[in-house]
Amino acid sequence: MGFHSQTLLACILVLGCSRSELQMQPAELSAGGSAAPDPSQGGKAPNDDPSDAPRRPTDTPSATAPDEPTPTKGALPEICVALHVDSGDRVPDGRAHSLVLVAPLAAERGPFELTRDESGGSAFSTHGRRFAFVDDSGLFVVDSWPPRPTALETAPGPRDVAWADDARLVVTTGTSLELHDIERRTHETLRKVTETPGSADIGQFYLARPSPDGRWLAFAEHSSGVHDVWLMRLDGSHEARLIDQLSPGSVIAWFDWAPNSEHLAFSVAGPNGPGPRPYSVSTKNGSIGAVAPISFALGDNESVPTFDFSPDGKALHYFYERLEPTTNEVDFRLYLVDMSGEVPGESVLLSSFGERYWSSPGLWSPNSERVAFHAEFVGNGVTRARELISKANRGSTAPVEAHVGEFDQVLKQQWSPDATGLYFTAMNADQVERVYRSDRGKAVLLSKNADTRGLFVSSVPGCIAYSQFLPTPAITIVKESSASSFEVGQPEWNAPDWTGSFDSSFAIWVDDSSGLRGLLYLTSSLAIGDTLAWVSVAGCVPQNPQVLIAGHDHQSLGVLDISTIDEWPFQK
Questions:
Q1: Sheet strands (E) in 76-159
Q2: How far apart are CA 242 and CA 31, in angstroms?
Q3: For 194-327, where are the alpha helices, taking DSSP H only?
Q4: What is the pTM of this model?
Q5: How far apart are CA 62 and CA 80, in angstroms?
Q6: Which of 29, 63, 524, 536 pairs as cysteine with 518 (C-beta 3.0–4.6 A)?
Q7: What pLDDT was estimated at residue 344?
Q8: 3-state helix, strand and coil shares in percent for the chain, rounded to the nearest 5
């Protein structure tokens, strides 16, 4: 699962319930490995006994087992969801945490609890065959269903995991980077840090991110107050090269690989001063290029808080922010950069207007040919919004405007999967958020009288969903070909004592190898906490909505990852 620099949606993490009410099924012991301990059952952590303590890997590859792949017994279901569950004041200690897996379409769907410890990083492998997680006891991998976590040997203090493919797992520990091959049952230490001479500061690694093709590993190293950017080959030699050494106090905010693996982009934030600045380094043709800035030269009052590669990796747009020091007014602009060469091209202003305006961050079309954004203009004391589309080319391009003066605000935008249409939500003076489709310059209303909250476009053209708060809380699925709308409810919403507020800003359509399968969504209520639900679809018609994890007082659910989603959009 990739790490992506987006500011789209956020997982809802609100209120929670008791552990007993979740009725989670514990994970079983795996043959050939040890299950994650259950403290409530007196379970022993793998390193409670010195004889069980993991060995510290050596610096050279350790052939700890034969080269044949490890048999997979009962592989993970194709659609599998990982969540954090936080429970509140019904638990004696006032707080409890769980990491769980649930499979909406499996015969035994769960939820299955993997651990109750404070968890570190977790991730599904590239194609969802395996799931790795870190807790207070160590590193574990799940590749069977029902899940049976298997403990892996690692250096002390594992903190994070990232998959290079379905077999190779990069593990960040307190003082090392490790590469585990799950199928060959081998592991090796890629890099270590040691105490700096004459200093008590011990370096550490963070943001270890394999490239999409699994050939490169980007990581950051912090030692003696200085942060470094490194690139390492994962396809043989494991040669590492220092890419950039930051000035003291500056930090790396995030890494973002181009989808074609030909560029690594990263954001650098300065200490108590300049905002984030974007840089990139080329890995085209298997060689490492020089670090180059993505944007034009920025002043102290200018920054680039977000950027996003096109789906084909050949271009990038970034969101520019400038604070006017005399008036404290903020300007927002959207720029396009050609990334087809070894170094970034010139910045092309997409949002170029003669009047004062504020641009939104852009949204790439699935075919990488266009960028959608919206802008707000101030004129005669009234703010009006326009929906805009620019073609992604190297030269200056004037954006195509639509719905000029029709809306006070345009709030969300989503492309159709075939890139032929654009959906958006907007509101006027009545402050009711409605869903529209832009059709040859006309705004076609899709949400009727609903006050909506979220907009979700599936992989099937003409099949979308939105969440609504009024007139009744619901998820509504729209099938445009038949002009049909289907409200999907939950049992709790019609209960006599249901008095809480409702929100469903988190939802995501889920596909498997056969196509679109359903919609996963999370609802929140002051009365019952968070609820995780699923509805299958056939031809965009909902079939049998089901509650996967029921809501209770003070329960908080956070969806971490889904096995079939290549680029998880809810991180960052």
A1: 81-87, 96-102, 112-115, 122-124, 131-135, 138-142, 150-152
A2: 42
A3: none
A4: 0.82
A5: 32
A6: 536
A7: 96
A8: 5, 50, 50
Sequence-ordered list of residues with C-beta below 8 angstroms from that of 475, at least 6 positions apart, any chain: 465, 466, 467, 468, 487, 488, 489, 504, 507, 519, 521, 535
Amino acid at residue number 190: L
Residue 108's DSSP bridge partners are: none
DSSP conformation class of 56: P
Q: What is the pLDDT of residue 571?
A: 40
CA distance 470 to 474: 8
Contact 320, 304 (CB under 8 A): yes
| Structure confidence at residue 457 (pLDDT) | 95
Cα–Cα distances in Å, from 387 out to 184, 226, 314, 375, 422? 52, 43, 25, 7, 10
**C-alpha closest to that of 99 among 138, 64, 134:** 134
Grouping H, G, I as helix, E, B as strand and the rest as coil, residue 40 is: helix
The DSSP code sequence of 352-384 is: --SS-EEEPPPEE-TTSSEEEEEEEEEETTEEE
Q: What's the pLDDT score for residue 27?
A: 58
The structure tokens 């609903």 sit at: 450
What pLDDT shows up at residue 72?
37
Torsion sign across C-alpha atoms 86, 90, 91, 93? positive
Token pair of 422 as six digits: 């654009």
Task: Tell me the two tokens of residue 571.
Answer: 């991180």
- Rounded to whole angstroms, the Cα distance separating 457 from 35 reads 39
3-state secondary structure 430-461: CCCCEEEEEECCEEEECCCCCEEEEEEECCCC
